[in-house]
Amino acid sequence: MEPGNDTQISEFLLLGFSEEPELQPLIFGLFLSMYLITVCGNLLIILATIFNSHLHTPMYFFLSNLSFADICFTTTTVPKMLVNIQTQSKVITYAGCITQMNFFNVFVVLDDCLLTVMAYDRYVAICHPLHYTVIMNPWLCGMLVLASWIIGVPYSLLQTLMALRLSFCTHVEIPHFFCELYQMIHLACSDTFLNAMVTYFATVLLGIGPLTGILYSYSKIISSICAISSAQGKYKAFSTCASHLSVVSLFYFTVVGVYLSAGAAHSSHSSAAVSVMYTVVTPMLNPFIYSLRNKDIKRALKIFFQWKL
């Protein structure tokens, strides 16, 4: 954007999906439903993992952390949008926008890293089953989750500090339902070259890096499964990682779709509509994917509800 009335603004306008008044109740109801399903579904996964001793294993430890990240991930964006619809206001303060962007970046990177850690867990379980409990010991599991946080928090802090140096024109409108980093860089009046370079290298490191690790893990997993002689053994081995593979595919395909659409049409609402897939729909579907394909989770949830009753 060309420098114009260059100043430090106090608020942004989140344009959301539609300005049609008759659509607002429908959008509010839809997103409130998806948010409640996301929170309840992921919270049940966490509670089932905590209260069922049979799920005190590395795989479910990572899954409960992923569920926690998904709850926080969705909470950074959806409640503010719901409040704006209910109050018929599109305003978000500058401080609120920066805060939202900061936490959103933390949890999207945390999601990415945890999916990579879970791929490594499945690799060890299938390719080195006899050494699984030795390799995936509690200390290593804790360090892997801690490392995910250590990667996510400094990255987000760096992006936040870089965003604070930007200046914006007055009456800034964000064609999105939350303060997304790329939209803020695009709307800035000041020079954004350094921000763009940092974002580009971070995307390569934190996007392609984990994806490479996941693909490598699954290449080894597939090789090990193909070496199994019995069809039943192959099915059992594949079923242990099918849910994770489904979640990974959903996450990466939707993220790629968002940024391809954003590059094609910055000024439209298409990017906001597509981004719903990985910011809202994916965290909502994750508990269903893991519970519907996992007998241990279904059994733990059944025991949990019987205990509560």
Walkthrough of the structure:
It is a multi-pass membrane protein. Keywords: Cell membrane, G-protein coupled receptor, Membrane, Olfaction, Receptor, Sensory transduction, Transducer, Transmembrane, Transmembrane helix. It is found in: Cell membrane. The chain is mainly α and 309 residues long. The protein has one domain (11-301): Rhopdopsin 7-helix transmembrane proteins (Up-down Bundle), CATH 1.20.1070.10. The protein contains eleven helices and five strands. It has helices at 24-51, 58-75, 78-87, 94-127, 132-135, 138-164, 181-187, 193-227, 231-264, 270-292, 295-308, and strands spanning 6-7, 11-14, 91-93, 168-169, 173-174. The strands form two sheets. The chain has a three-stranded mixed β-sheet with strand order 3-2-5. Helix 2 (58-75) packs antiparallel against helix 4 (94-127), helix 4 runs parallel beside helix 8 and helix 4 packs antiparallel against helix 9 (231-264). It is globular and about 65 Å long. The model is unreliable at 1-5 (pLDDT under 50).
Quick summary:
The chain has 309 residues and is mainly alpha-helical.
Number of helices: 11
Report the end-to-end length measured between terminal Cα atoms. 59 Å
Q: Please provide the ordered H/E string of secondary-structure elements.
A: EEHHHEHHHEEHHHHH
Q: From the 3D coordinates, which CATH architecture would you assign?
A: Up-down Bundle
Number of strands: 5
Instruction: Name the CATH superfamily classification.
Output: Rhodopsin 7-helix transmembrane proteins
Strand order of the largest sheet: 3-2-5
| Name of the level-1 CATH class | Mainly Alpha
Largest sheet: 3 strands, mixed
Secondary structure: helix percent: over 70%
Name the beta content range.
under 5%
Family: Belongs to the G-protein coupled receptor 1 family.
Main location: membrane
Subcellular location: Cell membrane
Transmembrane segments: 26-51, 139-158, 193-216, 237-260, 272-292
